[in-house]
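pasting input
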Amino acid sequence: MASGRLLVEILSIGDELLIGQTVNTNAAWMGHLLEKEGWRVNRCVVVSDEEAAIVDALKDAESRAELVLITGGLGPTRDDITKHVLCRHFDTELVRYPEIEDRIVSWFERRGRTVLQVNRDQALLPAACRPLENPLGTASGMWFERSNGVTVSMPGVPYEMEYIMEHGVLPAMRDRMQQEGRLPKRAHLSLLTMGTGESQLAATLGDMEEALERSGVKLAYLPSPGSVRIRLTAEGEAVDQLDRSHAAVLERLGEWVVSDEGLPVEEALGQFLVRHGLTLAVAESCTGGALGAALVARPGASAFFLGGVQSYSNAAKEQLLDVPGPLIAEFGAVSEDVARAMAKGARKKFGADFGVSITGIAGPDGGSEDKPVGTVYMACEGPSGAMCVRHQFGRDRTRNLAMSVRSAAQLALKLAIEWDVKSKPASRVADSL
Amino acid sequence: MASGRLLVEILSIGDELLIGQTVNTNAAWMGHLLEKEGWRVNRCVVVSDEEAAIVDALKDAESRAELVLITGGLGPTRDDITKHVLCRHFDTELVRYPEIEDRIVSWFERRGRTVLQVNRDQALLPAACRPLENPLGTASGMWFERSNGVTVSMPGVPYEMEYIMEHGVLPAMRDRMQQEGRLPKRAHLSLLTMGTGESQLAATLGDMEEALERSGVKLAYLPSPGSVRIRLTAEGEAVDQLDRSHAAVLERLGEWVVSDEGLPVEEALGQFLVRHGLTLAVAESCTGGALGAALVARPGASAFFLGGVQSYSNAAKEQLLDVPGPLIAEFGAVSEDVARAMAKGARKKFGADFGVSITGIAGPDGGSEDKPVGTVYMACEGPSGAMCVRHQFGRDRTRNLAMSVRSAAQLALKLAIEWDVKSKPASRVADSL
């Protein structure tokens, strides 16, 4: 194999990916893992379940990459052709592995299901490959040595692929790299900003950016609605000064920075609350629990998240959050008054420092002239006061729900940061309460 | 251009996609849209922000596809190189479009932000392209005619890309196809099964599958943990008999079918409840609201979803769901008894037909010998009784949370179907209550 960083390409097989029935989270998961390992993901290709397309893309990837990772098309049914295609590609034939067949049979027996011949035939694997164990399913991984590298085929079921990557592919590839004395060196650091756009950030960094680039540190701006993540990447010797560069960028951007780790806003909110010993509760109407779900996505959420109420119906708003019925009758469930009352109710019911609420019209139906589809109110109540914002998103339900979660987290983070700034001189806390 | 179905390839540009910092939802969104249009997505490639990689992949895609869709790398910062690469690729140069510059300036003014030169320079576009309007941002789409087709470049921000696709690319491409008299014909129908594996399903369809294939209908099995989606695809003349084939498969698979539209389990649950006029409430501990969020992801959720409690803390379980404190003290918050009490509490508090609960140890910490990380209890209480299951998932928090949501929806769907079957003879409902 070549020297330097390991070059990897990913080949995902499946019509369901091409037609958008499934999102290719496998590629993102692998990319994240490989990047952490210091290996370079050069390209990622999705092709259909057709022999010509698979072979064409595979040859192409193998011509460039030392490690080619294939996922998908290993099921027992007729539409799964990867194994047969690989046999022809590597000029080998299927042989039966009795110990794998035993494992498959016991896999079915443990689940009280009948083993069919097609299940047993999952133990038929190319003679030229080294099987990689998959205790979570019936399709083994396959490791093929080739003159200029390695090609691995894995099932497309995420947790099966992940197991084979972590227990089969990574350890074997690490050994190989070590034997060749190849130690990769590449590192990233990120930060998250709110309150301005990427062009203003780039202008502020100005001269610095060129100096960083000359010293081998690359800057990337990754904008999301309402926030911009900045990523610093260093390779080789520049890695040693990455911390210093990161600190310099943090200092230059000052109060725009809301997370020095470049976390998504929801995670930055959790991090901030934990650091300051604060707690939060939610009241979610149109999002149905998505804000809470985003907050608990990272470990350690119990240190700040007390819970919430998914008050999808008006009755739930009244009974579980003490939103006054007349308020809903007068202003409607989607209104500033109800949003504020929901935030107050969540804060009180859970005894939290901050209560955050979301109520809106996610669409595609239910809008009016005053409050068209995409109208969402978010409110946050904290120890030093409350805030409410009205957003007018678009007509797409999925996007409206995602934007609502992000905006509500931003609002809570803003209020928490302001409260922290205000509360620092102890005398002023008393004043503001 | 060629006759027949339009062949499309997608080229996504961005290191953040390769290293898994961002999941390529753009490709899935485009794939779904193009598929609905009847066009064929042949390949989807992700490359890094490097000129050589972009040009290489672009040439490759253009050699095969009539329509090449590029996303990403159009921001105003130095790391965004797509526009310059396209100028060299199409042998053209940047020219300033005054009307686009005016739009950019007013875009910033409306938001009360300063317009920088780099923002104005977003109005510099290749002379050889036709700009595609993007009212949601500052980067225009670009439409390039080439001898054997069209190449379009769009920003990577999802809603900007979506706007340009819907308002710029689709209408123009449809016109073109119509002028050429090309009417694509391709259709899909799906169904969702639970309770058996893909091999058993394939065995059950057996003879049928070959007959379908001969008549031009292709079957695909898409397994997820606990369920298998089956997709039927027909092209050309076979489209006319797709409905009949679908009905035949539905009949053959009988009670394994839980959704005749192939919806995910959470959506199948919602569909079932709406059809039978039933309601549901949730009580979520470790998932923090993810089940509720999944249930409201589709429009019309208010017809069956009343709400829920995100009882992340024990106090919330007691106070908002009436879970007896001694029960938590004796068995722990993660236990069958507490899961059942949570489901009962949700059902009662919201006055719902079904109450569903989730309580577990999502990890990576917090496990014990008895209840290791990945232990999750789900319970469901309905009009004719309650059920509780214990799952032992793995160590990955994200997967544990996703599997918990899916399994809880499965449990509720199972109970709802059983209740429906039981309740059909009216006399037996009374017996069972």
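fyi Confidence is low (pLDDT under 50) at residues 425-433 of chain B.
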